[in-house]
Design brief:
The chain is built from 3 helices and 5 strands. It is an alpha+beta fold.
Length: 136
């Protein structure tokens, strides 16, 4: 996509703080990091979200994300990190080119945990069945 900022980074039209690159995958520091070391891992080809990406590319991306996560953890001297991937506006996706966030986490960093909920057993059963029927 010609107006995609990540595609422009892949083409070298916009600079980035590159961490890793191979034929299919690029990893670079986020320009608006949550914490120092916040890294993005992207496929070089443009895919809007996870459901658009071929399985082999997703597999390669996961391998690279594992390698980069180890390096980020070691370099930032943290005990934990999040790997986050948003799909769609309502999920918080701002750049519509698939990307994983590797975010180092610090004790007491204020980010907290997701708000968990309980649903009645019948509702859980209904959604379970709906998801199973939707698997392609």
């Amino acid at each position: 996509m010609e107006d995609c900022i990540f595609c422009k980074i892949v083409k070298g039209e916009i600079p980035c703080s590159k961490i890793y690159e191979d034929d299919k995958i690029l990893a670079f520091l986020d320009i608006n990091p949550v914490h120092k070391g916040h890294t993005l891992v992207i496929p070089k080809e443009h895919y809007e979200g996870i459901v658009d990406m071929p399985d082999d590319t997703l597999g390669e991306l996961a391998k690279v994300a594992k390698k980069i996560s180890k390096a980020v953890k070691k370099a930032t001297d943290v005990d934990g990190f999040n790997i986050i991937q948003n799909n769609g506006v309502d999920a918080g996706q701002d750049v519509f080119h698939f990307h994983l966030h590797i975010i180092p986490r610090l004790k007491g960093d204020g980010l907290g945990r997701w708000p968990h909920q309980k649903f009645p057993e019948e509702e859980m059963k209904e959604i379970q069945e709906a998801i199973i029927k939707s698997i392609e």
